Amino acid sequence: MSTGAVPPVSAERPRMRWYGWGERDDGPALSESASALLRQALGLSDGPPSRVELEHVRLPEPALPGEVRSRLAGISELVDDREARVRHALGRSYPDLVRLRSGDGSSAPDAVLRPASHDEVAAVIAECDAARVALVPFGGGTSVVGGVEPLREGFAGVVSLDLSRMDAVRSVDSRSLLAVFDPGVTGPQAEAELGREGLTLGHFPQSWEFATIGGYVATRSAGQASTGYGRFERMVRGLRAVAPAGELEVKPFPASAAGPALRELLVGSEGVLGVITEATLALRRAPETRVYDGWWLPSFGEGAEAFRLLVQSAAAPDVARLSDEAETLVATAGSSAEGSGDRLDGGCLAVVGFEGSEENTSSRAERCRSLLAAAGARELGPGPGEAWLHNRYDAPYLRDELLDRGVMAETLESATSWSNLERLYRAVGDALRDTLAARGTPPIVTCHVSHLYPSGASLYYTFLARQERGAELEQWRAAKSAASDAIVAAGGTITHHHAVGSDHAPWMRAEVGELGLELLRAAKERLDPRGIMNPGKLLPPR
Amino acid sequence: MSTGAVPPVSAERPRMRWYGWGERDDGPALSESASALLRQALGLSDGPPSRVELEHVRLPEPALPGEVRSRLAGISELVDDREARVRHALGRSYPDLVRLRSGDGSSAPDAVLRPASHDEVAAVIAECDAARVALVPFGGGTSVVGGVEPLREGFAGVVSLDLSRMDAVRSVDSRSLLAVFDPGVTGPQAEAELGREGLTLGHFPQSWEFATIGGYVATRSAGQASTGYGRFERMVRGLRAVAPAGELEVKPFPASAAGPALRELLVGSEGVLGVITEATLALRRAPETRVYDGWWLPSFGEGAEAFRLLVQSAAAPDVARLSDEAETLVATAGSSAEGSGDRLDGGCLAVVGFEGSEENTSSRAERCRSLLAAAGARELGPGPGEAWLHNRYDAPYLRDELLDRGVMAETLESATSWSNLERLYRAVGDALRDTLAARGTPPIVTCHVSHLYPSGASLYYTFLARQERGAELEQWRAAKSAASDAIVAAGGTITHHHAVGSDHAPWMRAEVGELGLELLRAAKERLDPRGIMNPGKLLPPR
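Output (structure tokens, whole complex):
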């Protein structure tokens, strides 16, 4: 058990690399033993792949007509130097990083606009709409599904709309536990400001250091503590958005029966309907303390069953993570110093975390402890909980290192009912192993459950394989495609919290049906008749 | 404190009157003292108003072309006798009952179709679409906002689609706590079937004896225990619906980030987009026990503040009701036998209820008790909780009796943030009192809080006044209109759980804005290009 006060949050954040994730002083690094394990398991042999310098990234000629550029520059801050264009050319998916490292900047926008207000956003949209210029909303740029890649086909040009200057917490109503945010506020900024008033959002996705409120709204984000604090859509009360057809406002009522929930059309709209310019979000009182426990469970199936009992007994922790046998093996490789390595042999590691008042966390943790023990779980030392808290944002930093060593490192996720969890778990793992083995690059596939619901849970996969030098993207596409087909066939959602972007768009027909797509298209056509808003995302072509 | 085991639910339900609510053996009746109070307070003097017999209700000539009628009768059970047409002419709002009692059956459908399956619904819709016949989905017929009134203007005819024959619980997945329901299943049917497996929906609106699953979905229903069990939209996981343009399916994933939530477009769609033919709903374990406490609070404002602390401390009861001073006075008139009459003088009555396992309810009730006591509340005897449980479905029965005595009896509801609650409370009450006093019929206006959210609460008003004989509908319209304008001006939602129907449609522009309406229209036009689905509801005319 690890118990302790919750430290205050600093608004400081690391700088993002143009070709990867962040640069942090205490950034994580692969241990030598882990590197050795990978080299052996994945059969790495080639020397490290090359990476181009920023000045050698190949960019398209800016296509924006001169007078349009002038008018846009008159409305809002406009930058179109090399670095700005490269930094807005792609998100942070594995294929994005492969492309950037190889010097492929073909998707760079003609310019980056940095509006400072709702009115500037509206004016930029109006100008782009009139000039048939595509417009891509850009928050933290952390999309792992191709959500922020500018696609210019059929347009007179394409610009990226970077919302980072709209970064104020506009107002806090601590009586109603509501606050109004600009779209460009990042996780650290939000938590630092709210923390001063003893409040929190409780939203901590892996992208937390960089991602923004607007991005959370637009992608239906879920965080590491969403089992307790709820997915981001549960926090959204009010919204303001601008579309080419005008302005939309969703009032922040606590509840309403006034027809379909338009809020839920904007949440998850990924910039294809308009730009979120303001969000009124539900807050929580900041936790006084937190309790994180590590547990050993005899198998993934038994662990999932224990987690099911927890959430269905209203005893779910705020953070609930259960690694499968493979992930447990990788996580504990080289960490036998913690003294738990032998006990984990053949079993699974779980971390459960509680946050709140002293009384609340201890009583909930106690209840969880008795249910887990009754389900055959064994409590481990304080190590796993502390390690998880310390490393919770590390994975994308490590991905950069893996890419440096010629390793494909990718993640994907789904969710399904408890009754169907085992079937989905096997199907996706098998698809990844079979597909990559058939290409001569047998992978390491690991999985964990990280979000519990009364009716089911999420599954989050990580897979690593030796890169097929020169065919990195084809290799990735084959694996991604096989996994996505397997998800659909096995009754999972195509994405639990990564959103759709362009990567998942081909599976949206299976997800919502042809008439469901038509409904989304009807919304888009009404709000964005010329289709300038983030083209190519969310919706597959007709 | 009232503690006790939860009795099993019978699937039996009372029969609905053609001109009012239900007929029940133990149906409630106004006491003599309450009648005397009303006579005096409202200045009743006229003799009781007349009510026509069923055979004298004025019905329009059936307009359905003979061949269309034949084709529809070949698809599905069709009835078009007098009683069936009258029973589907209106819902159960106050103006609906005034009209029925006066013999106004002008909105009767040409025929009532009673499909037995999804496929029959689809075939009926196709036939109506081809023949330009309007179609009104009909569940329990309990709408209090004009939601099921057939409107035929501009159509070759209008039929009511009564879903009561589609009343099976299709499957129960007790591992995932999910069940698949036909749309015509009523509350008592659902609870009786689920109860046999130790499960419950936990959804108990005042219309529970009659209302159906499909109606709950279509109206974004909230129940008396929604503070604990959640509004109906929180229970809806999967849906199947048929529209003129085809079939829609929302898969019952526990969560998804795959774009906007189409589920939330169908929930609350009130039959204007299509017909819900199947719903997969989240279940709960049936409670073993329940604890209902009555409390006295010094004022409505202090009571609301205490409730805010409860819900924001995660200590909210499952049922939370706080009557204002006026409602407390009416509720306790003639009940001094309970021994709490004197203590309530000048204050407010609250009922808080907990349901669950023995351990869970007692620990939650204990925590609530200490928070309420700290907020200045005083615990009352077991009376209020028991009385509330016993009378929880009574109000619409009493309304019939009030109409018999020439009393206008109407309810309306809204919701807003905690910070804005006092303002909304005063504004709506003042609007009702001012408007009706100016017409020479000063009302009794009472209010209670019945649904708590971390960011705010609902307000539920009841108002009684002497009917303006011969101008009952104008009188009602004036009061309703003034209250609705006041709600909008004071920052409330136009409806917290009664839905929109035709009564609230004029305020939808204020609720969602012009572009919000356009979004809803875009959805309707894509799914229902000829506009046959429940015309005149939800959306105001352009």
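Chain A has 18 helices and 22 strands.
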